[in-house]
Amino acid sequence: MVSSRKLRAFKNWMKWQCVECSEALELVVSTNSWVRALCDLDDGDLVAIIPKESCLTVKASGARQMVEEAELEGILALGVAIMYERSLGPLSPWFGYLQLLPYAEPIPLLWSPSEIDSLLVGTELHKIVKDDKELILEDWKECIEPLLTSVSLQLKVEHFGVKDYLAAKSLIASRSFEIDDYYGCGMVPLADLFNHKTSDEDVHFTSSYSKLNNDADNGNYGNDNIGPTKKISHLGGECFRGSDLESSHSDLDDDAHSGKHENENNEPTKAYSRDESISESYSEFSSVSGDALTTLEMIMVKKVKAGAEVFNTYGSLGNAALLHRYGFAEPDNQYDIVNLDLELVLQWSSSQFSHRYSRRRLSLWRKLDYSGCVSQNSEYFEISFDGEPQVELLVLLYIILLPEEVYTELDLAVSITSGFEKSEGFKLSKNGNILFGKGFESSNSMLLTDGVCGALSALADTRESLYGSNRLEEDIKTLNCCCQVKEPKMYYSLVLRISERRILEKLRCYASTSAIMRTKVGWGVGVGKARKRAKIE
């Protein structure tokens, strides 16, 4: 539970950092943070202006020099910056912001090994989370632990352990934004308080080249994506610096000191720390040029009634990605998918024929310029929310099940045909004749033979067996008895597992329906590149 004292301190910190938040918004910060409309909001209303220099980034952090000398980059570097700023306590320029955040977000990365094995078994996340933990431990040992032995850095060891790094990673996964090419990825105060709703955002987060208290007064916010926006009369709060900073921390600690001071030119300078060289980059807040001088804006993209929560969107993500990155999942998420690993398909094929047979058929599939989706050295096929399999999987199963004489003829034709291009195609007639030509369009119905449909059902059964002995009905009953607030890990893992199992159920239905309704016309298939879709990262 976040106290009102910390929320007041955060609001004072925003004022000091020139982060402008509309008075039409109420920040509700308790167990979970969220934003509520205090009055009716219209499409195009500007509700927040956030200077990029107020965001916690590697470029702005006092850890910048240390990070750059260690040649750390990306998320790893940002994780070190967050740990460093946290280690400074009230001396950090971001203290008023950091004290509002939880120590860590409850994403699966921070679950215990037993929780991961029991709650995520069979799901898309099980192996990914376990692999992530191993990689993060390697990163910490190779890149962060050496920093702790440096006498010159004088880092507080108790703030840079594996647990602290995991906590920082959880904040980055659930709250960070890609700011621009200069700052890269960073923590964006205020923007990270808005909750997510898939494909139903109320507010849009965008860069702006407008100047604070300048273009805004003219009603021009420089937003090329949204178009002209109107100024909200409730956008309040002038920024203040210098001695006023003490009031922003007074709610937390009477002895808290300013993490940022002004020089004679009224410009921000470096924060105090034990190692002045590390904090040198604070002075660059107002010295960078170009894109870094812009601000970030939050603009309403639809009407929201007074009293309603205002939602942002983190993208069109399935439940596996939502739980992995943000620690929650949504029932009936239309972006859900289930992945069937290529190895699973080859295991099924080898059980029906032989390992050598399966590899030969796979080789022909690749010669025809097909591949599955690839991520983290794993090749897989997607099954959509509606239970429809990726066409590349259908082609592979079709080739695996070709009669030997047809396979041999096709393999020979492909081998002797020089310059086989993506625009060309092949067609298999009912009697096994192979015709090459241009203009053949891919059609799932041509691939859904009885054998392919049977293979899809068998693969669905094999994939579902990974969840254990519990049936789908039992999972649904357990979810109905589970308290989302008291047992969030179990609740959201059940939402994920149930959504995946329902997709497998739809895949079986797709296969059985196709077996009955499949057409007797058109037994061909076009040749094309596989779709490129990113797996969960």
Blueprint (SSEs and pairs):
Elements: H1 4-16, E1 20-22, E2 25-29, E3 33-37, E4 46-51, H2 64-69, H3 74-88, H4 95-98, H5 113-119, H6 125-148, H7 162-175, E5 176-180, E6 184-187, E7 195-196, E8 203-208, E9 235-236, H8 245-250, E10 295-300, E11 311-312, H9 319-326, E12 338-341, H10 342-352, H11 355-367, E13 373-375, E14 378-383, H12 391-400, H13 404-416, E15 424-428, E16 434-438, H14 444-447, H15 450-465, H16 472-480, H17 488-517, E17 524-526
Parallel strand pairs: 7-11
Antiparallel strand pairs: 1-4, 1-9, 2-3, 4-10, 5-6, 8-10, 12-14, 13-14, 15-16, 15-17
Helix pairs in contact: 3-7, 10-11, 11-12, 15-17, 16-17
Could you describe the 3D structure shown?
The chain has two domains: 4-257 and 270-315, set domain protein methyltransferase, domain 1 (Alpha-Beta Complex), CATH 3.90.1410; 338-526, Rubisco LSMT, substrate-binding domain (set domain protein methyltransferase, domain 2, Alpha-Beta Complex). It contains 17 helices and 17 strands. The protein has helices at 4-16, 64-69, 74-88, 95-98, 113-119, 125-148, 162-175, 245-250, 319-326, 342-352, 355-367, 391-400, 404-416, 444-447, 450-465, 472-480, 488-517; strands at residues 20-22, 25-29, 33-37, 46-51, 176-180, 184-187, 195-196, 203-208, 235-236, 295-300, 311-312, 338-341, 373-375, 378-383, 424-428, 434-438, 524-526. The strands form six sheets. It has a five-stranded antiparallel β-sheet, with no helix packed on it. Strands 12-14-13 form a three-stranded antiparallel β-sheet. Helix 3 packs across helix 7 (162-175), helix 15 runs antiparallel to helix 17 (488-517) and helix 16 (472-480) runs antiparallel to helix 17.
